[in-house]
């Protein structure tokens, strides 16, 4: 992820998912390469929102409509302020977004999204179109 100094786009409130996958992701590990501040567009999280389940299953990337955001993003707002090198684990159904970078400092991060090893890419009709590279991922864990 990269929000250059004085730039970067606003990322509307959403839940991490992609409808071309057979299963939704489980967890994202976000590592701050740079500090994340309110001024440089830190992540904004709705605490405990993962308990609501999937809000907009019809959107290809889990973005909430403005009406849904109005309903679900009024309370429990938490700005994820991080020092360089801090790590945060996010449930993929947690509602979150971020603002543009209004500072003179970049906000870069390394983000890894963990999924079930049997997840496959689909053609939007839940028909498998390829087999994942790590189809025997359980062997890697025990190696």
Kindly give the count of domains: 1
Estimated structural class? mainly beta
Instruction: Kindly provide the radius of gyration, computed on alpha-carbon positions and rounded to a whole number of angstroms.
Output: 16 Å
How does the major sheet shape up?
4 strands, antiparallel
List how many beta strands DSSP finds. 8
Strand share of the residues?
Answer: 25-35%
Q: What sort of overall outline do the alpha carbons produce when their principal axes are compared?
A: globular
Strand order of the largest sheet: 1-8-3-6
Question: Which secondary structure elements does this structure contain, and how are they paired or packed?
Answer:
Blueprint (H helix, E strand, L loop, with lengths): L1 E2 L7 E4 L12 E6 L10 E4 L19 H7 L4 E4 L6 E5 L4 E3 L8 E8 L22 H5 L2
Antiparallel strand pairs: 1-8, 2-7, 3-6, 3-8, 4-5, 4-7
Write a brief caption for the model:
With 143 residues, the chain is mainly beta. It has helices at residues 66-72, 137-141, and strands at residues 2-3, 11-14, 27-32, 43-46, 77-80, 87-91, 96-98, 107-114. The chain is globular and about 40 Å long.
Describe the structure in your own words:
With 143 residues, the chain is mainly beta. It has one domain (2-141): Jelly Rolls. The chain is built from 2 helices and 8 strands, in the order ββββαββββα. The protein has a 4-stranded antiparallel β-sheet, with no helix packed on it. It is globular, with a radius of gyration of 16 Å. The protein starts with a strand and ends with a helix. The model is unreliable at 129-143 (pLDDT under 50).
């Amino acid at each position: 992820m990269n929000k250059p100094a004085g730039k970067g786009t606003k990322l509307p409130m959403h839940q991490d998912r992609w409808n071309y996958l057979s299963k939704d992701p489980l967890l994202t590990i976000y590592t701050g390469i740079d500090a994340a501040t309110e001024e440089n567009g830190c992540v904004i999280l709705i605490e405990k929102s993962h308990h609501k389940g999937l809000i907009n299953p019809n959107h290809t990337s889990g973005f909430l409509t403005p009406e849904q955001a109005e309903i679900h993003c009024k309370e429990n707002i938490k700005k994820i302020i991080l020092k360089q090198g801090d790590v945060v684990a996010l449930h993929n159904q947690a509602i979150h977004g971020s603002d543009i970078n209004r500072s003179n400092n970049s906000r870069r991060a390394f983000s890894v999204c963990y999924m079930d090893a049997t997840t496959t890419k689909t053609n939007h009709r839940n028909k498998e179109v390829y087999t994942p590279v790590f189809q025997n991922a359980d062997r890697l864990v025990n190696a």
